[in-house]
Amino acid sequence: MVTGSPSSLDQLNSAAPLFEWSYSLLRSDPEKLPLVLAVICIAYSVSFWGVHNPLLALVPTLLVVSSVSEFLFPIHYSVSQRGVSARWAWNTLEMTWDDVRRIYDLETGLKFSPLSRKNSLFEAVRGIRVRFDTTERRVEILGAVALWRKDNVKDA
Questions:
Q1: Which among 34, 56, 68, 75 could disulfide-bond with 88, CB atoms 3.0 to 4.6 Å apart, if both were Cys?
Q2: Do residues 19 and 31 make contact, with C-beta atoms less than 8 angstroms apart?
Q3: 6-23, pLDDT tens digit by residue?
Q4: How far is CA 41 from its chain centroid?
Q5: Domain residues for 39?
Q6: Which uninterrupted H or E stretch holds 115?
Q7: Does the pTM exceed 0.85?
Q8: Using CA atoms, how far apart are residues 120 and 46, in angstroms rounded to an integer?
């Protein structure tokens, strides 16, 4: 849900988040849930079989849950004059506009990358991927980003 629409430059230049919304990968792709739950159960079963201790078996299970937390929990995005952020479960990613070097226009959203080279080896794992559920939100965010970003940002 977008909490505000830019009505003036004063509103765009405020430090408070101008756009905030949530996106759930689980709701957009619910048929993957049984597989994810099966992997979590298998991780616990194999861990319990290996250590014969229910508490110690939780450690690898929590690592698996952590690795799929972006899928299991809703992602809360915010875009402000300062930058872009994504929060889900116990994870937080933030990037200021000074750190953004490239913006990729993806089918489901945008990716803000801190890397200046397009074919960088680390491109897939660096940056913040911002997902949208509507085309209107994409237009609003792109308009706001165009006002805030610096000359060193390249569209890809």
A1: 75
A2: no
A3: 444 444 445 566 889 999
A4: 26
A5: 30-69
A6: none
A7: no
A8: 37
**In 74-112, which positions are buried (b, 16+ CB within 10 angstroms) versus exposed (e)?**
ebebbbbbbbbbbbbeeeebebebebbbbbbeeeebbbb
Structure confidence by residue, pLDDT tens digits, 117-155? 877 788 888 899 999 888 788 888 888 888 887 544 556
Report yes or no on 95 lying in a domain.
yes
Is-contact 36 71, C-beta < 8 A? yes
Backbone dihedral angles phi then psi of residue 90, each to the nearest 5 degrees? -105, 10
Is position 55 within any domain? yes
Place of tokens 């298998």: 42
What does the alpha-carbon distance between residue 66 and residue 117 come to, in Å, rounded to a whole number?
29
Whether 4 is in a domain gets the answer no
- Cα 34 to its chain centre, rounded Å, is 22
Does residue 3 belong to any structural domain of this protein?
A: no
